[in-house]
């Protein structure tokens, strides 16, 4: 009679276990990273979950690993372990970075987070160049172009595999519309295009499903910062990427990606996900006058943010 280890559970997992994907979270000890790790450990499509951060990862890993779900959890701490954390990963999620603190300018925040994203993406280019990369680190409007430039320099850039996570904007818009209409927000779909900060966030309320109408004042409402809801949104988007990798059809999410929808090199809009990342970038569709004006404002700010990211890597 074969002994089964209760510590590893390896013999239990081997028989009839569903194939899953290997996912790494970079910045797993932070305010977004910890709840995101919890949610990804619950995802049945995840077979291996790597948690990386510069501090506190062993404790977070031990805590998460006690959950009796299928994913095997491994922790990695500090830059010397970054390559081990990334080797063989199918999806890499990056919430790493610092929040803006009192006395910190936007430029201070940008320089710190931009440097973090650059280092992490250099690791990805070396260890798992074919992984789907989900960028959460702010400012997303600049960090996605930074990632693209790093991958270009390494010769590994595939625009289909690099996605900025703007799902929180969609989640918020769906919730807002649900409250206004008295409907379940899970039954509502609001496309949110542009970028992921300030005026670059453009909900297309004229394209809400189910159809409804709003005043311009209602359309301007809603703002805030988040960690728990951001983790929820990131887990929701990562799940869509995993379903695409599995071969599910009809997986459509909004994301900030390399795009030709506008004259800008990056833009958030609906994308269809598949086995190789982005399969199709969908057109914006008809916009009303309010949305067209918002689009022009969004594009002006986005152009500056994109250039700032590109310049950071190339200076």
Automatic annotation (TrEMBL):
It is an enzyme of class 1 (oxidoreductase). Residues 22-164 form the Lactate/malate dehydrogenase N-terminal domain. SUPFAM superfamilies: LDH C-terminal domain-like, NAD(P)-binding Rossmann-fold domains. One of its GO terms (molecular function) is L-malate dehydrogenase (NAD+) activity. The keyword Transmembrane helix does not apply. It catalyses: (S)-malate + NAD(+) = oxaloacetate + NADH + H(+). Belongs to the LDH/MDH superfamily. MDH type 1 family. This is Malate dehydrogenase. It comes from Eleusine coracana subsp. coracana. The lineage of its organism: Eukaryota, Viridiplantae, Streptophyta, Embryophyta, Tracheophyta.
């Amino acid at each position: 009679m074969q002994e089964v280890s209760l510590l590893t559970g390896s013999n239990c997992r081997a028989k009839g276990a569903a194939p899953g994907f290997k996912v790494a979270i970079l910045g797993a000890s932070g305010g977004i990273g910890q709840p995101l790790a919890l949610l990804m450990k619950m995802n049945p499509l995840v077979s291996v979950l790597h948690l990386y951060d510069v501090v506190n990862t062993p404790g977070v890993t031990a805590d998460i690993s006690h959950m009796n779900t299928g994913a095997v959890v491994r922790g990695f701490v500090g830059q010397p372990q970054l390559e081990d954390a990334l080797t063989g990963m199918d999806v890499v999620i990056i919430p790493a970075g610092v929040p803006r603190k009192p006395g910190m300018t936007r430029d201070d925040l940008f320089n710190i987070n931009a440097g973090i994203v650059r280092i992490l993406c250099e690791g990805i280019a070396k260890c798992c160049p074919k992984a789907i990369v989900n960028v959460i680190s702010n400012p997303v409007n600049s960090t996605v172009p930074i990632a693209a430039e790093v991958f270009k320099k390494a010769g590994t850039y595939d625009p289909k595999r690099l996605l900025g996570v703007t799902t929180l904007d969609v989640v918020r818009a769906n919730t807002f519309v649900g409250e206004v209409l008295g409907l379940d927000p899970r039954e509502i779909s609001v496309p949110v295009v542009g970028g992921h900060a300030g005026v670059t966030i453009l909900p297309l309320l004229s394209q809400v499903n189910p159809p409804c109408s709003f005043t311009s004042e209602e359309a301007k409402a809603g703002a805030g910062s988040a960690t728990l809801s951001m983790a929820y949104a990131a887990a929701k988007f990562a799940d869509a990427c995993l379903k695409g990798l599995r071969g599910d059809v009809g997986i459509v999410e909004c994301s900030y990606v390399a795009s030709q929808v506008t004259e800008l090199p990056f833009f958030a809009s609906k994308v269809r996900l598949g086995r190789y990342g982005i399969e199709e970038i969908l057109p914006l569709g008809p916009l009303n006058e309010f949305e067209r004006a918002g689009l022009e404002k969004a594009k002006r700010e986005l152009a500056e943010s994109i250039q700032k990211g590109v310049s950071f890597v190339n200076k």
